[in-house]
Design a protein that fits this description.
The structure is a homodimer of 342-residue chains.
Chain A (H helix, E strand, L loop, with lengths): L9 H8 L3 H9 L6 H14 L5 H8 L4 E6 L6 H14 L4 E6 L9 H7 L5 E4 L6 H9 L6 E4 L10 E4 L1 H15 L4 E4 L6 H16 L9 E2 L5 H13 L6 E4 L2 H13 L9 E3 L5 H5 L6 E3 L2 H16 L10 E3 L2 E3 L9
Parallel strand pairs in A: 1-2, 1-3, 3-4, 4-5, 5-11, 6-7, 6-8, 8-9
Antiparallel strand pairs in A: 10-12
Chain B binds a DNA duplex (30 and 30 nucleotides) through helix 2 and helix 4.
DNA sequence: GCCGATTATGTAATCGATTACAGTTTTTGG
DNA sequence: CCAAAAACTGTAATCGATTACATAATCGGC
């Protein structure tokens, strides 16, 4: 109750410290321009008055939005939580607000993203969705958003925006190599959805390593999935019906692996006894699943952080420009879902 | 490229339509105050110039933040995605930006939430986290946030903020009744974490119905969990060791049910053959899990929507005040994880 | 001790909206 | 047909910051 004064403005601070508002502003944004003694006086006054800068006023004057938008394909997928945490952390020091939108539940109309830029509601965007149409991106460019869009994890083929992602092909190679090291020869792969860039990257890494290791290949061992639990389950059915069953399966996502495992187990097979399974992502659940999942870990926190930093470098004039594109290393995490073939 | 003019302002519209900026503003926010003819002229001018209101200017003038904050305990839990979608939808028509923060990954310091209000960065908040300290809430009140905080799903005992939640006790009762109808008598319950309001509501609903139906009760049939996969798995171990095993288990969350089922199956039991399992929430995965999970559905989308509407009613002066507290109905969804006892 | 360069500070315009108040026109009622 | 009420519309202040420009103070060098 004691604090219900209206909030202090820069005017109040100026009055208390007996300087002009210009000086107060400078203390805040360009401290070197003002002498030590007045700086101290102003900082004292700020403390005394409890002054906090009014973002709306600052944004208006500086003609910026003070916000960035994060486009998430499906917030429900546990995979994204760590990434979002990383992003938030990356923006924590800045004065940018972080808006999050789900591109699946509220499908991004052609002009929605561009609209955000047009209306000056955001200064930049991070897209985790590689399914944004080139047209939509083109529209953003129209509003001068050229270099204020960053792609994270996924990307749009043929567009020049910065991309932060994991080393997907290497992850696939690690998975295959691990299975090979255990003695597996007949290795299948459940892919992501057609047309997804990650699907391609991981499939190609897998095929490449399989070739390098001179492992046998059969067309039906490449099973089309879509990163979902269901598709894993579907894949299990297909595998159960095969004449020539693989002894190990590399899944393009952990969720797929879960569906696959439960399908295989329901079909009477043992994992990893009869079939070994490797996932991709290392989401939280993978550690505690039964059996604990061997998988390829992406550093989700770091991915998010990095993307935030890159975007900040673009929108905030003060930041030093970082290298835009970066590929983060992945890591093989060996748990209980893989074992030598019987 | 053709559009790289700087964005039109209200001045531009005024000039084109030959009226004052005041009139343009009125057309936008109070159309009845202006005559039909000028209104049409202004709207034409708006269309012609491609004018869009500058939120920073509006927010500054109206002394508001133009944003609301959503506090989510753990964005990684699939349960929250549908809720967030509902919230977004609820705010879609308004000019409020929706900020989302994860209270687990970036633990909400005592004064963080209050700080948002103090700095005028938000006009209101929806908390899905019932673990906010009374002190922190008290601080918000200090900044006049009394009636601009809404609790959703969870709440803080002893505080007077509006609460939108599902009928948790009824959900528990439905679950028990369903198992009873199938012929089960020995029913166990895996709870949520101690101190959580949902844990209490669901446990009490369960106990109440069990009593009403005169079913046997044993202390060890109430197993402490924490809504996580692991706790379900842990519960499975306990159940496997029991002398007097229950024939059915009601879990306080779907994730718990998944952990439980995989633990039971790993222990050699069949679900639902040997033990039936009911969950709570009906997250996406439950439909596709193997076996598909019988569970209590919460209308997550509706919960989110409702909370958004209630908060809008508080922060936007124009909205008609809705009843603040509301309890939404739940629904029993029967799938494959429950069957009569053998 | 004087002068130009440097450093520190203030003045006032500006960002783009909203709205109290005042002024003008139209309507209404008798 | 006139006064009062109602309906429109415009003028200008205001929200709270930033910053170009002007001015004042300090400094160094000779």
């Amino acid at each position: 109750m004691s604090k219900m004064h209206k909030p202090a403005t820069i005017q109040d601070v100026a009055r208390v410290s007996r300087v002009s508002t210009a000086t107060v502003s400078r203390v805040l944004s360009n401290p070197d321009l003002v002498s030590k003694s007045t700086r101290v006086a102003v900082l004292d006054a700020i403390r005394e008055t409890g002054y906090r800068v009014n973002q709306a006023a600052r944004n208006l004057r500086m003609k910026r939005a003070g916000a960035v938008l994060i486009l998430v394909p499906n917030l429900g997928k546990p995979f994204y939580s760590g990434i979002l945490a990383g992003i938030s952390e990356g923006f924590a020091g800045s004065d940018y607000a972080v808006l999050i939108t789900d591109t699946e539940s509220s499908p991004l109309q052609e002009e929605t993203l561009a609209g955000y830029f047009r209306d000056g509601r955001i200064d930049g965007a991070i897209s985790l969705d590689g399914g944004i149409s080139s047209d939509a991106l083109q529209q953003c460019v129209t509003y001068g958003a050229d270099d204020r869009i960053v792609f994270l994890c996924e990307w749009v083929e043929g567009e020049a925006f910065p991309v932060i992602s994991s080393d997907n092909p290497e992850g696939a190679r690690l998975a295959i190599r691990h299975l090979h090291d255990l003695g597996h020869k007949k290795i299948a792969h459940v892919t992501g959805p057609d047309g997804n860039v990650l699907t391609t990257a991981r499939r190609e890494g897998m095929v490449q390593e399989r070739t390098r290791l001179k492992l046998p290949a059969r067309p039906e061992w490449i099973i089309r999935g879509d990163f979902s639990l269901e598709s894993g389950h579907e894949a299990a059915r297909k595998i159960l019906e095969m004449d020539e069953r693989p002894t190990a399966v590399f899944c393009a996502a952990d969720m797929v692996a879960f569906g696959l495992i439960s399908g295989l187990v329901a079909g009477g097979l043992k994992v990893p006894g009869d079939i070994s399974v490797v996932g991709f992502d290392d989401i939280e659940m993978s550690r505690s699943y039964v059996p604990a999942l061997t998988t390829i870990r992406q550093d989700r926190h770091q991915l998010g952080r990095r993307a935030a930093e890159v975007l900040l470098g673009k929108v905030a004039t003060t930041s030093h420009a970082l290298p835009s594109n970066s590929t983060l290393p992945v890591e093989l995490v060996i748990r209980a879902s893989t074992a030598p073939p019987s």
